[in-house]
Write a structure and sequence with these properties.
Layout (H helix, E strand, L loop, with lengths): L5 H4 L15 E6 L6 H4 L3 H13 L3 E7 L4 H4 L1 H7 L22 E5 L10 H8 L3 E7 L1 H14 L3 E10 L3 H14 L2 E3 L1 H9 L2
Parallel strand pairs: 1-2, 1-4, 2-3, 4-5, 5-6
Length: 199
């Protein structure tokens, strides 16, 4: 899916603007794993740019890694829905090496939301995080579900239009419109980096 200016296409829905509070912000990089490499390639440069800026500013950077130790036991509806799942410990389960992820927390999960059956929220609370930047794949599944979940827990969500990706442009745009309408500030990589570099 080629990158384009999605903000132009969702302009009617992006009626709210705000900069993140850098002192209370964390970056979440969702499921940038080899399993999703083809989807993730077009946004990889932007995701790395955001990681670099956040590291330089001393912000928390968290990576999620989706996987199932025993799909029959822990697959649930995902197993029924998709059939094939990412198995824990396989090459597809590993994070893409360009991210240099071992520097930071890697949060293992087996559902769409990063909050489900993890200690993610406890960590955010301990770190004093109020604003959450979301990047990664897939826009309309793990990224969107986590964004909605974060909003319902009273976090301000900054969802990066050109640093999230999925299998079709229609699905990507549908998520951006829905989140802009009711759950998140939709911005692009350049704008988010400018926000952070101004503090």
């Amino acid at each position: 899916m080629p990158l384009k200016n999605y903000l132009d296409e969702i302009r009617d829905y992006t009626i709210r603007e705000a900069p993140p509070d850098a002192g209370r912000t964390a970056l979440l990089v969702v499921d940038m794993q080899y399993y999703f490499r083809e989807l993730a390639e077009p946004i990889l440069k932007n995701v790395i740019s955001l990681i670099d800026v956040c590291r330089k500013k001393g912000l928390k950077v968290i990576f999620t890694r989706h996987g199932h130790r025993d799909p029959q036991e822990d697959g649930g509806m995902l197993k029924e829905w998709w059939g094939e799942l990412i198995e824990y410990g396989t090459r597809g389960w590993e994070l893409m090496e360009e991210l240099d992820a071992p520097q930071e927390l890697i949060l293992d999960k087996n559902r769409y939301s990063a909050f489900f059956n993890t200690d993610f929220e406890e960590r955010l609370q301990r770190w004093g995080v109020q604003d959450l930047i979301i990047t990664g794949v897939m826009t309309n599944c793990c990224c969107e579900t986590t964004a909605r979940d974060a909003f319902m827990r009273d976090y301000r969500v900054f969802f990066i239009a050109d640093a999230t990706a999925t299998s079709s442009e229609d699905l990507h745009l549908a998520t951006l419109k829905n989140l802009a309408f009711g759950f998140a500030y939709i911005v692009d990589t350049r704008t988010l980096c400018q926000y952070l570099n101004c503090v």
